Amino acid sequence: MLPTRAVGLRRIALIGLAGALAVTTAACASERGSGDSASDTFIFGAAGAPKNFDPIFNDDGESFRPARQMFDTLVTYKPGTTELEGGLATAWTPSNGNTTWTFTLRQGVKFHDGTPFNAAAVCFNFDRWYNMKGAAAQSQMIYYGDVFEGFAQNEGDISGDPVYKSCEAKDEHTAVLNLNKAKGAFPDAFGLTSLSMSSPDALKKYDADNVTQSGEAFTYPAYATDHPTGTGPYKFESFDKANNTITLVRNEDYWGEKAKTARLIFKIIPDENARKQELAAGTIDGYDFPSPADYNSLKQAGDQVLIRPAFNILYLGINQKNNPKLQDVRVRKAIEFAINKDQLVKNRMPSGAYPQDQFLPNNVPGYTPAVEKHSYNADTARQLLAEAGASDLTLNFYVPTEVTRPYMPNPVDIAAAITDDLKAVGIKVNVVQEPWNGGYKDSVQKAGKHDLHLLGWTGDYADPGNFVGTFFGRTKPEFGFDNPQIFDALSNADAQTTPETKKSAYESASVLISQYVPAVPLSSSPPGIVVRSDVQGLIPTPLTDERFYTVTKG
After folding, report:
1. What is the DSSP string of 391-423?
2. Which of helix, strand or coil describes residue 442?
3. Distances (CA, A) of 447 to 157, 212, 398, 439
4. Strand partners, 552
5. pLDDT tens, position by position, 430-447
6. Model's pTM, two decimal places?
7. 8 A C-beta contact, residue 249 and residue 75
């Protein structure tokens, strides 16, 4: 049965979405043509290319978007909410102080290769992740590292004691997961796309664990590039890199509601204006994260702009490793004092966005007015820099290109506004632009080349640890600091299993983080998603994890 702890704190009210969910606008046919092939194919404009198709080796939205259509998790979230519901498991029961989780599995489910999904397959997946070999592979398992903290043998960035202990296939439809300690992130974290179930046969056949690294480049095995094999409503057909299209086809043997369209195509269009033009031309049926400045013109053209609740954080990351002056908290506070967040939100963010003084959205437990605030004050920034002997500070500011994220509508424009604010208090800024999946994320999150960087996060589930724990729960090249007090506070908060104690513990951790300033929280934004007038059935979600099997056209 489901755990009895309250789920109210995990729910995000979807005010204003009722109209979006009941799309009534009709059209006789797609502008691409009136044949069945057009109405039976949904084409979505993606903002970037996926890193690969194996969920465990990914941590970004453009990689997860196609993966979510092909894979299922043990638990999932009710459409349009952050509330849990059954996925491949119909029930999940904790015991032994939440260190044991018993999953009752859905029967009659098959992987795309025809092999059965059962308890043995569940244990194979968990054992695979835990026993992963090689620094290259482990370094790409960011979500697993944040949730499970360590491997059987740590070889990469992750150096903690493993949370995972063992998995037992009690019978064909009962899997028992044993942990070395309780984590407040569960059961919600079992719904992470990274923890999707893959076919054991396909994993073995296509050498799934063979990730290699040469310099800063990673090479992934055939499973991740050409043969992803899940249980989801769509199956992988091809990734045409020459034409930047990913094609999925309906899984006729899907255990749940069959996909409404026979084909789902992701067309990779990095430029937001180009996505808008293709939508107008009818060559795509929708795209994510339209520019807020385009909302009115899109609506006037008859398109549907659906707005999700704000459930994300944009931050200016600070890496203390390369520049010793950034190890002085006065310098980090000066950087935050220098940034006019109100103007940034007003000029660069969509309506409904708000400035941030902490690393949690205001609808997540742990958000607290007690944090130490560093509101815009250029004079205070200059004074702190002078006191720290850093009036001549020069910083390398890494900025992503070829990407639009829910928390970051236009990274280059946002970075330009921040750069102007920093220069105004005497900080010299060298801007380094790199493509999102063509160097930027590895430069920032793996190599730690930067002094400053733009990044953010959309919550995967309504737990504060998914935000602050992910950011600051352990040492990371992205931030380059080691603060046992913060690490311990977050570990303690993550161990709480009741809503009241968890909320209090995360509030205390948020205060510590605000005093230390490991990064600068900037804003939270309500991202939009746009589809043509003849598209029905798309359910926007605060998690930005839309599933397209419900979509119809015409």
Report:
1. TT-EEEEEEEES--BTTBS-HHHHHHHHHHHHH
2. helix
3. 11, 16, 12, 10
4. 536
5. 999 999 877 899 899 989
6. 0.82
7. no
